Amino acid sequence: EYLSALDVQSMALTELGRARLVQKSDSTKEALLKQIYKIKDPIIASHEASMAIKQANQQNDPNIAINGLTKVLADFKQMSEPVEEEIAQFTLELGLAHLKLQRYQLAEQQFKESLKLHEDLYDPDAGELAQPLYSLASLYTEQADFEKALPYFEKAASACRLSSPININQLAYPLLAIEI
């Protein structure tokens, strides 16, 4: 029987935890064992989030992504060393799932939280800010609140010029639609 990469990684993490336990006192070992089996590794949590998003897209059901991302974000926030970049990205993904279901208030809340996390993580001129800015602009456009959307599109376009994952061409149509 073949083992998946995730199985091998999980086994390696468990063995690493056991090796570290050998050097600890009994009370410390018990506490560490509880942590090892309660709190997931960031890579495993990220994989679970990616799988939830993939499954949601395949089944065209954003609720699958919402449930999976909510669980994974809770896992990340419980980790002894939270991975802020992952939290920022998965918060954005959670907002996108809410947007697909036209849950505008929840989407806005997630996008704003993601934007704040991105701003805390990156330089104000960083291209990484484009995604949450663009998502907020798209949300307001979908609600026909073009005055609110325009500044976010402008900031997203500016951030794209700084080598963002979002292509500047993705922003051109919404900007033209607003200016018409």
3D architecture notes:
With 180 residues, the chain is mainly alpha-helical. The chain has nine helices and no strands. Helix 5 (84-100) packs parallel to helix 7. The radius of gyration is 20 Å and the shape is globular. The model is unreliable at 171-180 (pLDDT under 50).
Summary of the model, kept short:
With 180 residues, this protein is mainly α. It has nine helices and no strands. The protein has helices spanning 5-22, 26-38, 42-59, 62-78, 84-100, 104-121, 130-142, 146-160, 168-179.
Mind sketching the topology for me?
Layout: H1 5-22, H2 26-38, H3 42-59, H4 62-78, H5 84-100, H6 104-121, H7 130-142, H8 146-160, H9 168-179
Indicate the structural class. mainly alpha
User: Termini, distance in Å?
Assistant: 60 Å
In percent, how helical is the residue content? Answer: over 70%
Beta-strand portion reads under 5%
Question: Compute the gyration radius: what is it?
Answer: 20 Å
Mean pLDDT: 74
Taking pLDDT < 50 over at least 5 consecutive residues as the criterion, the unreliable ranges are 171-180
| Number of extended strands | 0
Tally the helices: what do you get?
9
Order of SSEs = HHHHHHHHH
Give the overall shape. globular
| Main sheet record | none
Q: Could you state the oligomeric state of the chains shown?
A: single chain
Keywords, please?
single chain, 180 residues, mainly alpha, 9 helices
